[in-house]
Amino acid sequence: MKKLLFVFLISIFLTGCEKNQSIVTSVDERQANEIVVFLASKGIAAQKIQTAVAAGTTATAATYDIYVDKDKLIEAMTILSDNGLPRIQGTNLLELFAQQGLMTTDKEETIKYQAGLEVELENTIRKIDGVIDADVKISFPTTTETGLIDTETPKLKSAIYVKHQGVFDDPNQHLESKVKRLVSGSIDNLSFDDVTVISDKSKFTDVILPTDSQMLGAKALDKDYVKIWSIIMTKSSAKTFRFIFFLLIFIVFAFAGSLGFLIYKFYPQIKSKYIKNK
Question: pTM value?
Fold first, then answer.
């Protein structure tokens, strides 16, 4: 019980003396890097730290927490909120229809194939220089029967969203036509004219970083970390930790000494009274 109380007190102490606070939790590395750079462009130093994973938890993709100085916490939250960061990540069809058992229906297999095809096309479009991100959506209509034998296959359509650094604004690149040819050539019965490309220039391409190199990197928050008995803390916190630790040791020894003195002082009297009563 005393050990648990000691650990609890130390945890409260470390939380209270920590100067940095988490502003964003459990985002992927790409979003974490984007947030750190964007905050740096606004004059706020930020640092990404990998999210701690509890023992026994199933291994998943690494996620990160973003820390800023607690004095800049409100300002950083306002900036991120005004710019829609972090972005909400929805569940895609591949995750929704993930393999859960040994048996799957034909419909599920078809959906997984179509979603996988979209992901493959997205990865290919991202390889184009100047493309930041891409989303591909393909409409796969079902075949309809028009008679006893003949069937009519509705036209396939596709919509593509491309986040870019400005390369789509250059008419000499013809990137929109290239993307249309890529997608229409990858899917049977998909016409070039039935592919729609929506390009969006990223506002983060105009981000200007400050000349202060310490706004980015491992020392962005001017923190040096040390390890004491498997506990990781900042150097400034370590000094206070040592002071409180040795103070507790002193109190324990003082209490033990006082208890020993009381026993030494009063034990003979208690013993003599006990013998007399006998």
Answer: 0.57
